[in-house]
Amino acid sequence: MLVDSHCHVDFPDLSADLPGVVDRAREAGIGHMLCVSVNLTDFPRLCEVTQAYPEISWSVGVHPNEAFEANAEPSSAQLAALADHPRVVAVGETGLDYYRSEAASQWQRDRFAAHVAAAKQCAKPLIVHTRQAAADTLDLMRAEHAHECGGVMHCFSEDWETAKASLDEGFYISFSGIVTFKNAEALREVARKTPIDRILVETDAPYLAPHPFRGKVNEPALVVHTARCVAEIKGMDEEVFADVTTENFKKLFSRAKVEPIAA
């Protein structure tokens, strides 16, 4: 059994056929999915859309690319209160992204710090997004003592030095379909070096479909292709890799109710 450790099945591309998405995931051997929040406005809909599927856990958070609103920024207390729901197993996704936002944006750092504080308050792990901001992301994680809650560097696409520093802070590394792309040899080298007991796999669906589906709408069932790629990199049997990464997920997201796939 595999787990898709990060997806957005509440997004329109997938929620329009969520029963089909879940059925295809089950058929592919995906026993659990973590549906990740990107803003608080849509969080109630995320819950409503996925409520009927116990194999879908939730996170709560505001993505670093969500627009800054001076009077509507999430507080750590607000995030922690929402994270108290039993289906919420993590805080995020949060982090820093300088690809679409100005590198000096203090509001991004303040938002990230609020998420770290909330995660520590509710004792649930962080889901961290970083893009063109690796050094600042790690600096803030250290300054805010993110190791106290732990978490995962989701959709990892940075270099080994960033991966090693994240591992040293107690974080897991999650590989998406990017690792299957032909031009991703540097990322595959990161996968080779990352300890197997700190690896997760994800889709980030509906984005980043793995080879050979690159450019198409991604969905949880396709995480098997990412898992197959990383298992090959690690020289592991696919079923053993699936079992190990599922246990990794259960260890990190300890409140997720990961059950065997029903016959």
Question: Which helices and strands appear, and what pairs or packs with what?
Answer:
Blueprint: E1 2-7, H1 12-15, H2 18-27, E2 30-35, H3 43-50, E3 56-60, H4 76-82, E4 88-97, H5 106-122, E5 126-131, H6 134-143, E6 151-153, H7 160-168, E7 171-175, H8 185-193, E8 199-201, H9 223-234, H10 238-252
Parallel strand pairs: 1-2, 2-3, 3-4, 4-5, 5-6, 6-7, 7-8
Overview of this protein structure:
- The chain is of the alpha/beta class.
- Helix content is about 40%, strand content about 15%.
- α4 packs across α5 (about 105-120).
- The longest helix has 17 residues, at about 105-120.
- The two termini are about 15 Å apart.
Q: Which characteristics define this entry?
A:
263 residues, alpha/beta, TIM Barrel, 8-stranded parallel beta sheet, 10 helices, globular
- Helix residue percentage: 25-40%
Under CATH, the topology can be stated as: TIM Barrel
**Structural domain count:** 1
Q: Name the structural class.
A: alpha/beta
Please give the CATH architecture.
Alpha-Beta Barrel
What is the H-and-E element order? Answer: EHHEHEHEHEHEHEHEHH
Low-confidence stretches: none
- What is the highest CATH level, the class? Alpha Beta
Largest sheet: 8 strands, parallel
What is the terminal separation in angstroms?
A: 13 Å
- Total helical elements: 10
**What is the residue-averaged pLDDT?**
96
**Whole-angstrom Rg:** 17 Å
Give the CATH superfamily. Answer: Metal-dependent hydrolases
Number of strands: 8
* Shape assignment: globular
